[in-house]
Amino acid sequence: MKDDLTIKEAKEMLSKKNIGVSELAEFYLNNIKEKDKEISAFLEVFGDTKEQSKKAQEKINADQADDLTGIPLAIKDNILIEGRSVSAGSKILEGYTAPYDSTVAKKLKKDEVVFMGRTNMDEFAMGGSTEKSAFMKTKNPRDTSRVPGGSSGGSAAAVAAGMVPAALGSDTGGSVRQPASFCGCVSLKPTYGAVSRFGLIAMGSSLDQIGPITKTVSDAEVLFNCISGKDDHDSTTYESRLIEKENREEDRIIGVPWHLLEKEGVDKEVIEAFKENLLKLEKLGYKTKEIKLPYFEYTLSAYYILMPAEVSSNMARFDGMRYGAKSEGDSIGSEYMKTRALFGEEVKRRIITGTFVLSSGYYDTYYNKGYTVKRSTVSDLERVFYDEKEPIEAIAIPTTPTPSFKIGEKNEDPIQMYMADVFTVPANIAGIPAISIPGKEVEKEGVSLPQGFQLMAPWKREDTLFSIGKRFEEEIPE
Amino acid sequence: MKKEDIEHLSQLARIELSSKEKEVLEKDFESILGHINQIKSVSEFIDATTDTATGDVRNVFREDDAKKELSADKVVNLFPKTEEGYLVVKKVLEQ
After folding, report:
1. How far is A240 from chain B (nearest CA, A)?
2. Of chain A residues 123-152, which have a CB less than 8 A from chain B?
3. Consecutive 10-residue runs of chain B (95 residues): their mean pLDDT?
4. Any idea which of A251-255, A258-262, A275-279, A404-408 has the lowest mean pLDDT?
5. CB neighbours (10 Å) of residue A314?
6. How close A267 gets to chain B, by Cα (Å)?
7. Rounded to the nearest 5°, which phi and psi values hold at A129?
8. Which terminus of chain B, N or C, has less C-beta within 10 A?
9. Rounded to two decimals, what is the model's pTM?
């Protein structure tokens, strides 16, 4: 059998009875055993995969398999699966067991997937390298001296190293796209509201979305179809029936905001690789057109105001009273203070920042302005996506300004790490869907490193991303 | 951002910070503020015509019917300290 399968390949093997569900899970357990010693993608490998395989096998035997029946998946450590440990990469949730299923877990269970384990992440999804996990650092399978990206670094590394065919991560400012870009995987941040956040440990509630990390665009589509949909438990969700758009020649215009790439900190090799990716699109019949998105210049600042504000609210629940770790103190007040001291450095930094921007006297200067920048960013996009004469089908931009960096390289100045989000944050701020696909690689110090090609589509238009993405992935015929 | 400001924020956020942590945060804040202060230079705003960014924002209500969602024992089992099914905490009100 091949070293490593896509979801589609695995499904075919299972349906042809070339392999059983339990055997397939066993195969991947062996991959994990072999490779995870070095990579450290998994915080926990579940011991009951054989048990989980039974129902899936029954479904396949009865010819009732869904697209994901029997497929092994890794789940980021901030998504709740009932009865299993979950910690958001944090010591403050030590000993916590999920008392309920997240909606995505419920949907995946309905299809009878096999959950292989929970993957490492930056603590509470705050970070861009997975170095901020309270437990361990994950390495990039393509170059183990480098980071896998973050915060869903464990999930991306697990897929890239062939430890699982696919994984789930979460994306608040790029946390699913950036690690996929660094590790050489496909990943999707759905439209805000496409996938339920019920059972996802919240970071920034107006920005968070759960997304698939896979080897191919088709696999991402399969996972997205399973986990998306309206959910009564999350009133920000909508019913995401994919719109089939006619394949009209005139519509295939890709917008490129060149003004955003002429910035300090964007590697020239990344721009060269990006240009080659655009050439590939043009060979496929797409036209590229320069567009201006003026408010995108401010989305990173707006993000680092709005996100910490929401973080400071969302982290308030971790007080040691009802669940998780607890530090004893003389009074209830001191117990709050001491328990919350268990948060890691980055989490504390963002809570304090958020407390500041929401505090009296600063709320107007920062939070309000951040919110109006958010609305203006949406207006930039409305202008290009809904233009009457020449609507843009999708926007193309590199996923990250640089390829993966060395472990420890960006620990000096928090802003350095934050700058890595410059091309991913706009999609979260605006709520639009965005996909990162492995494009032309970039060479650094003699090593060829993955570099993501990112496409952003209008709200609810994941179908556009899948359609362009699938064509981009194929070899171009001579 | 001065040390007293960091101290005040840590009280608001209910997080005990060591002296070293406060020092580091003071320094970090210079950097962070320098970055987010960019927002002050935005003078003009163009509002969006739709509420698509936050998914057609509107209040969502349902009938006030009790539903069996999460059994109490699953929640109580997570309490650090319980007594007869109640959550035990230190005294909240000083006398």
Report:
1. 12
2. none
3. 91 96 94 92 83 62 88 92 92 81
4. A251-255
5. 18
6. 21
7. -155, -5
8. C
9. 0.96
